[in-house]
Design brief:
Blueprint (H helix, E strand, L loop, with lengths): L28 E3 L1 H19 L6 H24 E3 L15 E6 L5 E7 L10 E3 L3 H6 L7 E6 L2 E11 L1
Parallel strand pairs: 1-2, 4-5
Antiparallel strand pairs: 3-4, 3-7, 6-7
Helix pairs in contact: 1-2
Length: 166
């Protein structure tokens, strides 16, 4: 049926499903075991949420379920593309995926500490950064005591790796 014969109140705005964190083209979707567990937990919560949707009318219920379906679809794609890396299997003396790293600024003495994780697990409040973040890419492969030059907005910062642990 042509859209010209549909009542105006029946015409709905298309749903916008929020995208997941971006992974650059051609980059493997690495996750920690904890990250995989979090993704599976998120899928379970979304499925439960979809099954228990309560709404004032059928249109609202259908739209809410469609939004959840979109989130589930994106999450399943992410799960299917994930590759688990065991932090404990990484070289202990080198910054790699899954490492907890302490850095000291050579100029200010400021200490930074964070873990390098998958993009879905990244949360700066929990001191977790994605392995695709510029600082994570800059320090990967370096060892304790080495100084890394990190370009931040045109300013080059020298960061000394003081600790690595998994």
């Amino acid at each position: 049926m042509s859209r010209g014969f549909v009542k105006e109140e029946d015409q709905e705005e298309p749903l916008m499903v929020p995208p997941r964190a971006a992974i650059p083209e051609g980059v493997t979707n690495y996750v920690t075991p904890n990250g995989l567990e979090e993704l599976n937990g998120e899928l379970k919560r979304l499925e439960e949420e979809r099954a228990t949707v309560k709404a004032e009318n059928e249109t609202e219920k259908r739209r809410t379920q469609s939004l959840i379906d979109g989130k589930i679809k994106l999450l399943i794609e992410r799960l299917n593309s994930s590759r688990v890396l065991q932090p404990g299997e990484q070289p202990k003396d080198e910054v790699r995926f899954g490492a907890m790293v302490k850095l000291k600024s050579e100029s200010t003495g400021q200490i930074q500490e964070f873990q390098i994780v998958g993009v879905d697990e990244a949360d700066i409040k929990k001191k977790k950064i994605a392995f695709v973040a510029p600082i994570a890419r800059a320090i990967t492969g370096y060892k304790v005591g080495e100084v890394v030059e990190f370009n931040l907005g045109g300013e080059v910062r020298k960061l000394r790796i003081t600790e690595i642990f998994y």
